[in-house]
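Exercise 7.
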Amino acid sequence: MNNNQRFNVVVKHLKTLNERLDMFEDEINITNSVPQKFELQKKIDQEILPRICRYEAEYWELYPQKYMEAIIISDDEAQPKLLQIEQAVESIEHIPNTEYPDELLLLLQDIRAKLNDLDKSAAAKLKVALPLIPAIASYELEMDTEGVMYKTWKGVLNLLRK
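Solution. The predicted structure, written as tokens, is:
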């Protein structure tokens, strides 16, 4: 079974278990019998919740593999967006403060500080794992991308200042 098929099976199981959990919780709220409530709660705690936890852990292990393409943003795509954000912040900052709530101005200051804070960049790493033999062996590669992003951002700022 490949990862995509397993992911779909895990989603199906989670849906079924959550429906069962909802059914048991509804029954607890409806029933007047204390022993029956106790037994239902015991089934939830000992059977359903541990299985949900196991499937959720597997779900999040498989999730990035299924949707990795959706969360990768290239430098070429990111640079115009960063420029748009900076331009938007600048245009809002030039409008008198009386037109915007204080909370918005605080957020704008925070965004401006993050855009200008080039000396304190976050550590950025790209980690790739290639399964050689599924579930047995994989090859992992880790690359530091912090320097690349710093140089790119510095170049963008230099272009803007000219």
